[in-house]
Design goal:
The protein is of the alpha+beta class. The chain is built from four helices and five strands, in the order E-H-H-E-E-E-H-E-H. The chain has one domain: Aminopeptidase, CATH 3.40.630.30. Strand 2 and strand 3 form a beta hairpin. The termini are far apart.
């Protein structure tokens, strides 16, 4: 099997990153359509956003590459905690992590997470956090296997708004 390397993403990787992100968003939309509905032009908006992230010193985007082809990516950023928190109010926050279906269960995600943690360690960030969708059956087991432990829960309650009243 061809070796997998993890490297910093470049502008040449953007199309692949957007395609991987879209698959992740499609999965989220499938499991929770009322919350994860994508706006028109979402792919273009994400493309522009991730391109800016490549040059942002407070962010790191890395890709896993096998045989010259990107098969996964991770995006981590410096994140501000409330200033009342100690030891310092800055932490690392994994924004997205996705591995192509055909490359899963081969250690690629683990390699990407290791790169994100290394980036955080080099910046003396004392914590790394990640949010994941509970309805995604792969997320919890993966992040637990990476050593992350659940910390908070975000609960969703759809609220009926004007214009959504049923006509009886």
């Amino acid at each position: 099997m061809t070796e997998v390397i993890v490297r910093r993403a470049t502008s040449d990787d953007i199309d692949t990153i957007v395609a991987l992100w879209r698959k992740l968003m499609d999965l989220h939309q499938e499991v929770e359509p009322t919350y994860f509905t994508m706006s028109a032009g979402a792919d273009d908006s994400f493309r522009s956003y991730i391109a800016k992230c490549l040059d942002d010193p407070d962010r790191m985007v890395a890709v896993a590459v096998r045989g010259g082809e990107p098969i996964g990516y991770i995006h981590v950023a410096r994140s501000q905690r409330p200033p009342v928190m100690a030891p310092q109010p800055i932490q690392g926050a994994i924004q997205e992590c996705c591995v192509s279906e055909r490359a899963r269960r081969a250690g690629v995600g683990r390699m990407l997470v290791a790169e994100a943690i290394k980036w955080c360690r080099e910046r003396s960030l004392p914590h790394v956090v990640v949010g994941y969708t509970l309805a995604n059956p792969m997320s919890g087991p993966f992040w637990n296997a990476m050593g992350f432990r659940p910390l908070e829960v975000t609960a969703l309650l759809p609220v009926e708004t004007k214009g959504e009243h049923s006509q009886s």
